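Subject: Sanity check before I submit

Could someone independently write out the structure tokens for this chain? I want to compare against mine line by line before I put it in a report. The sequence has 411 residues.
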Amino acid sequence: MASALSATPAVLTVELDPEHIMRQRPPEALSRDNAELLAAPIADDLRRIVGEEIAEAGLVMPAALYDLTELLRPGLPMVEALLDIYRGSLRGGPFIPQLLTLGSNAGRFPESAIAPLRRPGSGPLLAIPFALVAPGEQLDPLRQKLEGVLLEKGSAGLATDRALRQLMGVEPVNLSYATFHDLSALMKVQLEHAEFGSLWQLIEAALYRPDSVEDCRLDTGNRLIGTGGEVWTPWLSFDAWAAHHQAPPEQAVAGYGAWMRNQRQYMAGLESHGMSVHPVAPTRGGEADDPEIALSVAQAHVISAEQPWYREIITDDPQVESATIVTVTEQSDAQLGPVAYTALVQAADGQLITLVHDYPVRPEGIQAIIGHWQARAEALGATWRMERPGQISAAGNPAYLQPWLDYAGSA
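---
Independent answer below. Compare away.
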């Protein structure tokens, strides 16, 4: 009895000049006819590099360029999708080696789940993925050979270079073949060189050790706990950071800025690989040294996506009937933009009713916070005032956020 079909993935890496990609999208996927024109020289390259035995396996390839983050995702969905497509092409019949390409039709990609995202600024290293497909026992020796020779001997031929230039309109500075493991090793080197080694630790675990619990702690105080392709990360407020470090305002602004920069970069990096990232409201037990305990606490205190901000309450009097003015201060950094919004609700005599700090945990949280407080002012019949001093307003030692009070009109 023949074994089930299996797939082993690889890519043709397409390195572009960084100056040509910063504001551009990768080209659209090729049409069905042009997809076959590109696949033919790629198949010839593989026979030359690996050997004629590769013709005993099927080859399935989407004729499109992908950023590496689109390919290295938990569960490797690209590989599963290509295997399913090849399996479906057999219509229940026996395995037949064939060249199967995926191209667009009327501008639409046939499989939306693996359609190229074409995000602006992708690259400079892009890739055309493909998978070799065959029954498991037949594919195993071929997989081992790919791992041994593809990166070492995998330069693309002139026909492939010419096809890419003519069909996709790109001008590659280098074309070479690599396995997914080679891509992983390359990304690890790149991230570690950029001092994002912990980011790679979380991504690698999601790819190859999904059942593990990875506890990453950064020097800036960020903590990220990952398992099963998801990551939980406690959200730290400015006041909490300053109190922990006993920092005066200037030091707290710089230190908290570094924390926020890492928080945003790590969240964006993980999400670009298709990983779910859950900001967590800080709570007792979340700082536990035991990752399993900290993870359990974090999973129980996820900040709801329906309210994409973390609220730190300084004081909140429920008796708000006397409120006459609502002032919101945008606490911002020149490089990071808004990091928090301080909402101050006062009575006519200046009495403090409410003082809270709202932290947008996602970009959409910025407008959500502003909209929330503007609607609150309207509901109270209070005057609405928005202050944008262009800086973080803090005082004390340790420092704490405060509303912008130096206004004569509007900041």
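---
OP: Matches mine. For the report I'm noting this point. The first helix runs from residue 32 to 50.
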